[in-house]
Amino acid sequence: MTTRTLSIRIAVLSVVMLFFSGCAAVHTSIAKKDLDVQTKLSTSVFVDPVPPEKRKIYLEVRSAVMEFDRNAFRNELNTQIANSGNGYTFVDSPDDAQYTMSVFVRNLEKASPSAAENYLATGFQGVAAGSALAYASGGGYRQAAAGGLIGGLVSTAANAMVKDVTYLLVADIQIEERARKGVMVRTDTKVNMKVSDDGGSTQTYSEVSNRKEYRTRVVTTANKANLELDEAQPMMFEKTAYAMASFF
Question: Is the pTM of this model over 0.90?
Answer without folding.
Answer: no
